[in-house]
Design goal:
With 166 residues, the protein is α/β, with parallel strands linked by helices. It has five helices and six strands, in the order E-E-E-E-H-H-E-H-H-E-H.
Length: 166
């Protein structure tokens, strides 16, 4: 059974999802691919994982870097999980390009090259926004490209993080 909880962020409402133990989803309401991996009969319920995630979100939206990560369960392909693990390592207030992520995966796999477009697809399908910081992934020239919740929100998130680093 999957469970849902709602959080009001300064940038719009969020929906959190859990399998009862771990966080399996975190989306801006109405974003692209919203809740696309949930079981059909998800129900609203207050759970400890939601309380922990709300604490993380409160810290984050106050302009501070949370010093913990709630338990996560990534329901995705092995490639998407690999991209997600790299995104989790992007420091607060910093960015990484799709090409840099592709190069890391290529190196790890012993390949000469990996498609930045394939990485872009995996980033775009990130199930746990904010905590797995897909908003920190940018285009090769520093351009803000693609964000399932829209570029305006991506820009606001990056601005929120950059204020703390000045």
């Amino acid at each position: 059974m999957d469970y849902l909880y709602h959080y009001k962020s300064p940038f719009g409402p969020l929906t959190l999802a859990s399998d009862g133990t771990s966080l399996i989803g975190l989306w801006f309401d109405g974003q692209k691919y919203f809740a696309n991996t949930l079981q059909d009969k998800a129900q609203e319920k207050s759970l400890p994982i939601f309380k922990q995630t709300c604490c993380w979100l409160d810290i984050y939206f106050s302009g501070n870097k949370p010093d913990f990560t709630p338990p996560l369960l990534i329901r995705a392909t092995p490639f998407c999980k690999e991209v997600g693990e790299i995104m989790l390592k992007i420091p607060y207030g910093k960015t990484m390009t799709y090409g840099q992520i592709a190069a890391k995966i290529a190196k790890k796999r012993g390949l000469k090259k990996m498609s930045a477009q394939a990485v872009g697809g995996a980033v775009g399908h990130n199930l746990i926004s904010l905590i797995i910081p897909c908003h920190r992934v940018i285009g090769a020239n520093g351009n803000l490209t693609g964000y399932a919740a829209g570029l305006a929100i991506k820009r606001k998130l990056l601005e929120l993080e950059s204020k703390k680093n000045k």
